[in-house]
Amino acid sequence: MNLIVYELAAATFLSTLLGGLIILRFKKSIPYFFAFASGSLIAIAFLDILPESLEIAQKVGVSVRAIMLTIIGSFFLYCLLEKYFATHHLEEEEHSHPHILGPIGAGSLIAHSFLDGTAIGIAFQVNFSIGLIVAFAVILHDMTDGINTVIVMLRNHQPIKKTTLFLLLDALAPVLGLITTSLIVLPEIVLTYVLAFFVGEFIYLGASTLLPETRQHPSKKMILMMALGMLIIIVFTSFLKQ
Hints:
Blueprint: H1 3-25, H2 30-60, H3 64-88, H4 90-94, H5 101-126, H6 128-155, H7 160-180, H8 188-210, H9 212-216, H10 220-241
């Protein structure tokens, strides 16, 4: 692959890292970032991941119903996970005990970032100009991936050291994804289900884990931050489709 491909991959690393470091630096403003992340996660699910999953599904002959059932199953799975761990760790939660959903949610964001990297590599294999557009869009929204990774970890009472580790992994993920495209290609039928699973998870994380924070803080700025998160993803995805 052309050297510029790896330069763009390095840019995704820096973009993700920058987003996460901003959150770690301004922890007192985290409730506003919760609102921002809620909006951006929900928008990413509906405007980025779901359309991509449906597009691939149409190509490989997977029904829309199968994709929707996967989304429902993913959403329900995360409901069970949170219910189970909330039931068994209620006392610890009251004392800000680390919650397992932090690493689970952040881990899926890392997987999503990995797929972002593979998207860049595949796009460049198809067409150089398309590769540039996809890379630019990934670089822009990877900052929100870094933000979301840190927020999901901190929201579930994970320590700063562990949160920083997950942020670093999230920043490395698109670079590794790009390298992987030169070694192996994920079958499209598998990819469409993986993306659908992410849709269900991101909707759950945004609507059930992060959105309640906006109700606990009556400031109108919370709603504005959630709207900003959605708007940024709307702009990025609109740019990508042009």
